[in-house]
Design goal:
By secondary structure, this protein is α+β, with helices and mostly antiparallel strands. Helix content is 54%, strand content 17%. The protein has 2 domains: 119 residues, PhyR, sigma-like (SL) domain (Butyryl-CoA Dehydrogenase, subunit A, domain 3), CATH 1.20.140.160; 119 residues, Nuclear Transport Factor 2, Chain: A.
Length: 281
């Protein structure tokens, strides 16, 4: 038990990045634990490597199942937000954990996703990755190259400093709270995107909203409809500073905003209560 517990957080880190939700990651770690208990551990020379390999293979199989389910998801799908300890100035590790990057990882095949994460985030060499996914080293290099190209083309650069993120969130709160359309528009880039995940369980935009005018009017509309006591605080979410909004004491939404030159480029709002349960506790 002690050996497994020593690596539990590492296995969760792999599983969460692979699957995008803490609940699914917990299930995978539990299954890895059951296999660890069931198999002959006397022949395991490197427990960490064995557990990481088992976890990754389980994740690849689970992700294939989840991709089919997510095709019928109601509205845009966003990863489950996690409370994290953000580095002072963001950085590469924080970016690989961001909601935007995890969403972009959804565009990869399960194997491409595993290869990219093992190589880019967890610093495995190609020989180790080849052993884990049962492919040749040459194939792993090709998989990584394809994944890296796809992610680079789809990823926008954003301001990573905590100070810039806090200024953006404060500007968002002030503009939305004012109810003034021109003021809301002033904090948005022309090509801003608003992604809202309600999972069909709460009110949310049913598609990704694009463009300053459309997004500003949507923000103005939802702000005007709020009643009761609304409170908020800032917390590190997936390596970035996020905004936790509560309605009458209950966690209602988590906002993460990526900005460029002080204006919002991408606004992500997680409202699905299933994805807020862990943060609510």
């Amino acid at each position: 038990m002690e050996t497994f517990d020593n690596h539990r957080s590492y296995l969760f880190a792999i599983a969460y990045r692979m699957l995008g939700t803490a609940a699914d990651a917990d299930d995978i770690v539990q299954e890895a634990w059951l296999r660890w208990q069931r198999d002959d551990r006397a022949e395991v020379e490197n427990p960490k490597a064995w557990l990481a390999s088992t976890t990754t293979r389980l994740c690849i199989d689970r992700l294939r199942e989840l991709k089919r389910k997510r095709e019928t998801y109601i509205g845009p799908w966003l990863p489950e937000p996690l409370l994290t300890q953000a580095p002072p100035d963001g950085g590469e590790l924080a970016e690989t954990l961001s909601l935007a990057m995890l969403t972009l990882l959804e565009t990869l095949t399960p194997v491409e996703r595993a290869v990219f994460l093992l190589r880019q985030v967890f610093a495995y060499d190609y020989a180790e990755i080849a052993d884990i996914i049962c492919k040749s080293e040459a194939n792993c290099r090709q998989q990584f190259s394809r994944a890296q190209k796809a992610l680079t083309e789809g990823r926008r650069r954003f301001e990573t400093s905590r100070e810039a993120q806090q200024r953006m969130l404060e500007s968002f709160l002030e503009a939305a709270g004012s109810g003034d359309l021109a003021r809301i528009e002033s904090i948005l880039r022309e090509d801003v995107e608003f992604i809202s995940d309600g999972g069909g369980k709460v009110i949310a935009a049913m598609k990704v909203l694009r463009g300053r005018d459309i997004v500003a009017r949507f923000i103005q509309g939802i702000a005007a409809k709020r009643t009761g006591e609304v409170t908020f605080d800032f917390k590190p979410i997936n390596g970035q500073l996020g905004l936790l909004l509560r309605q009458d004491g209950k966690l209602d939404s988590v906002f993460v905003i990526e900005s460029v030159d002080g204006k919002a480029q991408t606004i992500q709002a997680v409202r699905n209560p299933d994805k807020l349960a862990r943060l609510a506790v």
